Amino acid sequence: MDKLLIQGSASLVGEIPVSGAKNSALPIIASSLLAEGPMVIGNLPHLQDVTTMIELLGTMGVEVVMGERMSMEIHSSTIKDLVAPYSLVKTMRASILVLGPMIARHGKAKVSLPGGCAIGSRPVDLHLKGLEAMGARINVEDGYIYAESDGRLKGAHIFMDTVTVTGTENLLMAATLADGETLIENAAREPEVVDLAECLIAMGAKIEGHGTSAIRIKGVPTLKGCHYDVMPDRIETGTYLVAAALSRGKVTLKGARADIMDAVIAKLEEAGATISIQKDSITLDMEGRRPKAVNVTTSPYPGFPTDMQAQFVVLNSLAEGSSTVVETVFENRFMHVNELVRMGANIRLEGNTAIITGVEQLKAAPVMATDLRASASLVIAGLKAEGETLVDRIYHIDRGYECIEEKLQLLGAKIKRVAS
Ligand code: EPZ
Question: Can you tell me which atom of ligand 1 is nearest the CA of 124?
């Protein structure tokens, strides 16, 4: 299993490109199952999760042709097998995103239950409840979701008990081919939901209100293919901005979109960073200053993203002063804390709150990654740790960060991948 070895105390300086958003690419790839004709998706990040989603479509008989620079052409008319097997779904929860399109287009679907993961139980009850409201017959047995509908789904008025990103995305996709109108209330407002909706509209869907908590969809008979480029990844952008801040450097993220990062940018400025926004890039300059501690509470968009929580725990661990980080979205998303404490961080957990007192520098230690964002945070912690930090189980990182060591090396970090 590969590991990442990071030599500490490098100030990051320079400019790197931002990749396409993983959490936008995954639903958009799944939406190709709705299209009558071929679909071309561009600006895809080269990530394990994207490969897994393509592999999943491949096992169903969908033809995928790789284009240049990580674009791909998907022909879903060749689909043969309406089954998403446990062997693939267990490696990537987002596989559940094929359920809505399959039942909407083919009236039938068998999808393995994704099961929990390190950060929480992550049920999919709201996905299923919404599809049943649209007329699907759902039953769950031997670890699989069996869904069927007699003819097309029917438009429905759906209220989501909890804001769920992929739940909203599954129902949004299903509603595009339902008879009549669907209203999804308490919908997720994440930019990745908006990106998916814009792609569906390019395929001929009739959608309004995406980006608000009430999305209205008028079903259409069919959807055509389209060419759609995935938006830039706001979480990758935020991760490198935090790395620049804690290393007291100056970094520019090319292709980044500041308009979808208000909560993160506000917190970085509160921490003492100078942020300048150009047409298609963001520059953070710490001017050599140590960051100041900032209090953070995660919540659904436009609130502070849970996917940036671990990164800010690291930033606060090295900041001047004390702070609290409250995680309200997932029940177990502090696994990075124990690893950071082993690196000398001063953090105390009380329920869903981390109480942090900043230290001047961390100490290198062998640490272990547990989930995607926690593992990226351990890597950036290694940038400000005395000695060599070895991060194990970095397959988590490869799921969501394209070429992380190359991008950090471009910024002057001393980091390399070592096979074990
Ligand atoms: C998406 O996961 C993202 N993944 C996650 O990013 C992100 O952390 C999360 O949204 C929250 O922003 C993708 O988009 C592929 P949820 P998702 O459904 O949709 C509860 C990363 O690091 N819930 O919004 O699975 C659930 O338990 C990943 O890139 C139900 O109770 O998250 C959680 O507490 C990690 N019933 C809350 O809602 C349901 O049916 C939010 O989960 C669905 C969800």
Answer: 40
What residue owns the CA closest to ligand 1's atom 38? 164
Buried b (16+ CB within 10 A) or exposed e, 303-332: ebbbbbbbbbbbbbbbbeeebbbbbbbbee
Quote the ligand 1 centre to 164 CA distance (angstroms): 6
For β-strands 214-218 and 181-185, DSSP reports them as antiparallel
Q: How far is the CA of 123 from the centre of ligand 1 (A)?
A: 9
- Do 158 and 110 meet the contact criterion of CB atoms below 8 Å apart? no
Q: Is the pLDDT of residue 212 over 80?
A: yes
Residue-wise pLDDT tens digits, 81-109: 999 999 999 889 999 999 999 999 999 99
Q: What backbone phi and psi angles, to 5 degrees, belong to 241?
A: -65, -40
What stretches of 214-326 show up as alpha helix (H) in DSSP? 234-246, 262-270, 309-317
One-letter identity of residue 333:
R
Ligand 1 pocket: which of 162, 333, 335 to mutate (most atoms within 8 A of CB):
162
User: Which among 173, 190, 260, 329 is the best mutation to test ligand 1's pocket, defined by most ligand atoms within 8 Å of the CB?
Assistant: 329
Dist CA 376 CA 309 (whole Å): 11
Sheet with 227-229: list strands edge to edge. 63-66, 72-75, 39-42, 227-229
Distance from C-alpha of 50 to C-alpha of 71, rounded to nearest angstrom: 11
Nearest alpha-carbon partner for 94 in 64, 115, 71: 115
- The closest of 41, 75, 31, 50 to 217, measured between CA atoms, is 31
Question: Among the atoms of ligand 1, which is closest to the Cα of residue 119?
Answer: 35
Instruction: Give the whole-number percent of the chain exceeding pLDDT 90.
Output: 90
- This prediction has a pTM of 0.97
d(CA 2, CA 404): 13
- Percentage of residues in the chain having pLDDT higher than 70: 99
Among protein residues, the one whose CA lies closest to atom 16 of ligand 1: 164
Distances from the Cα of 198 to the Cα of 166, 181, 254, angstroms: 16, 18, 23
Residues with CB under 6 A from ligand 1: 22-23, 26, 93-94, 120, 122-127, 162, 164-167, 306-307, 329-330, 372-373, 400
Write the residue with the smallest CA distance to atom 43 of ligand 1: 124
* pLDDT computed for residue 116 by the predictor: 63
How high is the mean pLDDT of the chain? 95
SS3 category, 8: coil
